[in-house]
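Structure (tokenized):
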């Protein structure tokens, strides 16, 4: 139902707009377009995918990945960003098959592989969901300069977190990042350009 989806997307965009103040605060320190900090994004990791399989950064060599950190209980920012990502891939057409979207949880206490599986399926069959132990998540978040912190108590706590999408090349190296201001069309254009620029 495309219309229903569009409405959902619109609602999510509004929610995101309301969060802009918070999101700006969550932008990773030291990460500026064209800045020197960007070369330091990425690195080795060992995590568990949504089927329970252990994976490392080496499993993604040879393909582009678009990595986003968040959590499945996120009420607004994460679902909005993942919708934007999914819409951008749809917009790209066949070229989208060169890019693997990867959602990494910063809430491993609740985001088990089973929870991740049910969640990422909402955004497309090509989505990969990664989670791990608290230490593994801390390590991968550090490698990607992602900030996250628990907000609130009890079972319904939220997580504050950096909301950026990182495009990594087939060599595993960082290419560029996109923030919450990038709409699906712009993102599709940027991704197509990046893929074309480094294709033989
Ligand atoms: Ni979120």
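Design, position by position:
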């Amino acid at each position: 139902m495309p219309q229903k989806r569009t409405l959902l997307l619109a609602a999510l965009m509004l929610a995101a707009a309301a969060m802009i103040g918070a999101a700006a605060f969550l932008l990773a320190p030291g990460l500026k377009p064209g800045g020197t900090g960007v070369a330091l994004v990425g690195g080795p990791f060992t995590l568990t995918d949504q089927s329970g399989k252990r994976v490392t950064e080496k499993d993604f060599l040879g393909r582009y990945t678009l990595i986003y950190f968040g959590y499945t209980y996120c009420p607004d920012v994460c679902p909005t960003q993942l919708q934007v990502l999914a819409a951008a891939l749809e917009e790209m057409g066949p070229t989208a098959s060169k890019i693997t979207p990867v959602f990494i949880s910063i809430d491993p206490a609740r985001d088990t592989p089973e929870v991740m599986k049910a969640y990422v399926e909402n955004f497309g069959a090509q989505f990969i969901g990664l989670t791990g132990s608290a230490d593994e998540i801390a390590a991968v978040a550090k490698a990607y300069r992602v900030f996250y912190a628990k907000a609130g108590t009890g079972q319904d706590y939220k997580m504050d977190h950096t909301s950026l999408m990182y495009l990594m090349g087939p060599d595993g190296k960082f290419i560029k990042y996109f923030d919450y201001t990038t709409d699906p069309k712009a993102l599709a254009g940027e991704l197509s350009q990046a893929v074309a620029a480094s294709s033989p």
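Reviewer-requested clarification: The chain has one domain: 2-32+47-197. The chain has a mean pLDDT of 87.
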